[in-house]
């Protein structure tokens, strides 16, 4: 039997159906390609950019005389960490620059603030320098914690442990206790600062952003310290002169040891702080010093003192006793017993470098960053494979259409 010839109308209709089907298939292939590209982009973006945007940072605020003698120790501490979890600010003497000649670590290059002041021990200028550091650090909205450190401080643990420890609580770490023995309180501060708000503690505090912002805006407590905490003839300045018989009318309240703790007590915020410092200091109570000089200065650890046993003895401290309050502070982190200190002072450069070379500080590089980079590459590779597969399907279709003389875009 002879086949009936296909009418031109049916042939045209068939061709149009084929073209429509081909166009839909090409559209599907193109859409699949775009979706795969978007998915691949999200793999890279979701793995990288949230670290820069969402991670809260710790601002490390260094108070230095000139350069930072232990910058190589801190360089090892920060190694392997992207700067999305920390920032660095240094207050040094006016005019001093941290450049290639004065800084041996890239982390500290040009990190000095540009409006530093001259600091005088025993005066409110120390507090002013701390406030200036806070002002600079608060300009970065990602900074959520503000840790004050001296130029003789060393880290005791690696960055990841330190970061998790500090960020695990919503409180500030402020050494704070009632001061009833030193006689540093000036009655002239009353009634602005009543004696029951007077506190003593270490200046090496770690503040939340809320408390840092309040200190920067303080126009009540700080002026009292400026006005009534004047420098007097402390034992280290007596030299060959006789000790005054009666210096009770002079008041040197050592502002840096009192201001932050007193300010927070004055504002009724002691419930928002963990009442201890994370920086270990050993005070000199040697009988070799005269009675008036005992306890004025922290012990300085030199080369001969720098041993793994010393570091371990500091790490093993798990409680602090406050004699004036008959209070023992047991140290915890995330609700579990933990070491009390993350940092320690005062270490000379030879002592700190010896500990670093002996791997006694536990500040070795964190390999997680390398694992992270590798995982991103793996994700990218997987995305590329899926893209390639989608493209091959589309190319095969185009090849098939060409074989059957299907003109898609005519």
UniProtKB/TrEMBL annotation:
UniProt key word Transferase: yes
InterPro entries associated with the record: BC10-like (IPR044174), Glyco_trans_14 (IPR003406)
Pfam families for this protein: Branch
GO terms for cellular component: membrane
Principal location: membrane
Single GO molecular function: glycosyltransferase activity
Membrane-topology descriptor: Single-pass type II membrane protein
Keywords linked to the UniProt accession: Glycoprotein, Glycosyltransferase, Membrane, Transferase
Superkingdom, natural source: Eukaryota
Subcellular localization(s) per the UniProt record: Membrane
Name of the protein in its database record: Core-2/I-branching beta-1,6-N-acetylglucosaminyltransferase family protein
